[in-house]
Automatic annotation (TrEMBL):
<dbReference type="InterPro" id="IPR050346">
    <property type="entry name" value="FMO-like"/>
</dbReference>
<protein>
    <recommendedName>
        <fullName>Monooxygenase</fullName>
    </recommendedName>
</protein>
<dbReference type="InterPro" id="IPR036188">
    <property type="entry name" value="FAD/NAD-bd_sf"/>
</dbReference>
<dbReference type="Pfam" id="PF00743">
    <property type="entry name" value="FMO-like"/>
</dbReference>
<keyword id="KW-0274">FAD</keyword>
<dbReference type="InterPro" id="IPR000960">
    <property type="entry name" value="Flavin_mOase"/>
</dbReference>
<comment type="similarity">
    <text>Belongs to the FMO family.</text>
</comment>
<dbReference type="GO" id="GO:0050660">
    <property type="term" value="F:flavin adenine dinucleotide binding"/>
</dbReference>
<keyword id="KW-0560">Oxidoreductase</keyword>
<dbReference type="InterPro" id="IPR020946">
    <property type="entry name" value="Flavin_mOase-like"/>
</dbReference>
<dbReference type="GO" id="GO:0004499">
    <property type="term" value="F:N,N-dimethylaniline monooxygenase activity"/>
</dbReference>
<keyword id="KW-0521">NADP</keyword>
<keyword id="KW-0285">Flavoprotein</keyword>
<dbReference type="GO" id="GO:0050661">
    <property type="term" value="F:NADP binding"/>
</dbReference>
<comment type="similarity">
    <text>Belongs to the FAD-binding monooxygenase family.</text>
</comment>
């Protein structure tokens, strides 16, 4: 097929690669002068959504890499520049640049008979070109959400986070920051360092997860299949829609989980007598590139009782009714917490009521004078390009968030997915592998496509009920990818795992690694992928194996909740989050340590 790819960012690059693997004729259009999408910076990009100067990834490079070009070495967090270099290396490795037409903006896409006609503007000249299939990979950062109720009469400066590059323009100003996401957490910290005063306004609490745990490990080491299945399968009666190793077979499921208990106990027992891997001399730097002493949780965020107390109080408020399974989007960046603790940033969680001139009134009757408002309020759900649109602006109306159900598999929106914890690039890669095989005629769509979409949409809406506007979000990246991999044929077969304990233990109890999707199936890397999978540290899977084996033998109703709801009698809100501490009382345990969550 002749296939059009719109956008040459991380999602577009892997889409071009997967289509080429299937032998398609690919043309990629990108309005930028080079690859990289938001990661590409150049003079004159001030009005575009771009990664800001001091951005660091919120998940490690192990999970931000592609499975066909895995990151080598210990898990760590790349800077903006380092990740851009990785994308360039990926494009060079597979010769993707020759398929991309830079400086070419797609203005509309029309359905003409059974083909797609793509209109492109380059150097002021419009042209049209027909294609058999089209993949939109331009990302959700199209229309900034600037319509914030209560700010209609504010006469000061209003800046959207898409325009943010660094904190210099806010030095000495009175700044109000509205909303908090992962980039927002950095903006709060950086602006709070230089502003005359800084207030953070939120209406709800996202779930906070530090980037670093145990001094020198990334928290995403704790992303483990067994744990995700405990959260979204075992600890709830809500039916699971996504298929995994055992498919729909009850017998296969029982056999698999029984073996997980056997292998779990065996791994733990043998681990007690085994020799731990010699890691050599401990690095002087943590995964953020900062000194390992004193211990830190995040950028300039000490691992101390004060910061943990604020994080835990915040997380308690993120799930007011309590939950074993997270139901709200994660913010994998806690670097703003010390700013609140030190008083450089004031928190208001009541929301904005109104504004007049430079005065903003909050719903708790509080008021503030501000020179500048920074909106960390995300983007509109605006995906339409001519005849290509998404029903209700909700990508959950597409198959697996990407494949349009109305055009016989010839239209896809790739990369419009946001895992609670995990990387978008591998999600885009798996979507692209599926799409490329559909275009080849090697991949069949479900016969009851609309019914499958409806069921999976309902499942996701149930588990994201506390973040209803975030329709790109998926609760479990692991389950989502495994279900796609099962259909593609690149999920390791259950029989292969049952007769290979080492492989079973690594895939089920070990830290999640997308190289697991290149061991078998189309375009696999075989032993190379297996070696990368086994390169992960062994300590985590030993601990997880015992924990999972015990939980499998324990009634689900006794599972301790990650997020506790109603405060216990001796717990009082943190004064920095609007409450007070009693000197005679200490906070009760509020969650299983965030260090253990994936």
């Amino acid at each position: 097929m002749k296939v059009c790819v719109v956008g040459a960012g991380p999602c577009g690059l892997t889409t071009v690669k997967q289509l080429l693997d299937e032998g398609h004729d690919v043309v990629c259009f990108d309005k930028n002068p080079d690859i990289g999408g938001i990661w590409l910076r150049y003079d004159g990009d001030g009005d575009q959504m771009k990664a800001y100067d001091d951005l660091y990834l919120t998940i490690s490079m192990k999970l931000m890499a592609y499975s066909d070009y895995p990151f080598q070495g210990e898990r760590r967090f790349y800077s903006r520049g380092e990740y851009f270099d990785y994308l360039n290396a990926y494009a060079d490795r597979f010769g993707l640049g020759e398929r991309i037409r830079f400086g070419s903006e797609v203005t509309t896409i029309q359905r003409v008979s059974d083909r797609w006609v793509v209109s492109v503007r380059r150097d002021g000249i419009d042209s049209k070109e027909p294609f058999d299939a089209v993949a939109v990979c331009s990302g959700p950062f199209k229309t900034p959400n600037r319509s914030i109720e209560g700010l209609e009469n504010f006469t000061g400066e209003i800046v959207h986070s898409c325009e943010y590059r660094n904190n210099e323009r806010f030095r000495g100003k009175r700044v109000l920051i509205v909303g908090l996401a992962e980039s927002g957490a950095d903006i709060v910290r950086q602006v709070g360092d230089v502003a005359a005063s800084c207030t953070l306004s939120i209406r709800s609490y996202s779930y906070l997860l530090p980037r670093v745990s145990d001094r020198n490990r990334t928290t995403d080491h704790g992303t483990v299949r067994a744990h995700h299945h405990e959260m979204y399968r075992r600890a709830t009666t809500y039916p699971l829609e996504f298929q995994t190793f055992w498919g729909r077979s009850t017998l296969a499921k029982v056999l698999f989980l029984a073996m997980s208990v056997v292998y779990g106990f065996a791994t733990s027992v043998l681990g007690m007598f085994g020799v731990r891997r010699d890691a050599g001399a401990e690095s002087a730097l943590n995964p953020m590139g900062e000194s390992i002493d004193p211990a830190r949780l995040d950028v300039a965020t000490l691992d101390n009782a004060e910061n943990w107390k604020l994080i835990e109080t915040w997380n308690r408020r993120s799930h007011p009714e309590g939950s074993w399974s997270p139901r709200r989007i994660f913010c994998k960046n806690v670097s703003f917490i010390p700013s609140i603790a030190a008083g450089r940033v004031t928190l208001n969680d009541a929301g904005i009521e109104s504004s007049v001139g430079n005065t903003v009134t909050f719903r708790d009757s509080g008021k503030g004078e501000f020179d500048t408002v920074v909106l960390c309020t995300g983007f509109e759900h605006d995906f339409a390009i001519g005849d290509l649109d998404v029903k209700d602006g909700n990508v959950r109306n597409l198959y697996k968030h990407f494949l349009h159900p109305e055009f016989n598999g010839t239209a896809a929106f790739i990369g419009f997915v946001r895992p609670f914890s995990g990387g978008i690039p591998i999600c885009a890669e798996m979507q692209a592998r599926f799409f490329a095989r559909v275009c080849s005629g090697r991949q069949q769509l479900p016969a009851d496509l609309d019914a499958v979409i409806a069921r999976e949409k309902e499942w996701e809406e149930h588990w994201t009920a506390l973040s209803p506007r975030q329709t790109e979000s998926i609760p479990s990246q692991v389950m989502y990818l495994d279900s796609l991999a099962r259909e593609i044929g690149c999920l390791v077969p259950m029989r292969k795992m049952l007769f290979n304990p080492k492989l079973f233990i690594q895939l089920w109890f070990g830290s999640f690694n997308q190289s697991g999707y290149r061991i078998v199936g189309p375009h696999n890397l075989g032993r190379t992928a297996l070696a990368d999978l086994y390169s992960e540290p062994v300590e985590n899977r030993r601990d997880m194996a015992l924990r999972h084996a015990l939980l499998q033998l324990t009634p689900s109703f006794v599972h301790q909740k990650h997020m506790m709801g109603t405060p216990t009698l001796n717990w009082v809100d943190s004064p920095l989050l609007g409450g007070t501490y009693s000197s005679s009382e200490s906070p009760a345990p509020v969650l299983v340590s965030s260090r253990a969550l994936g």
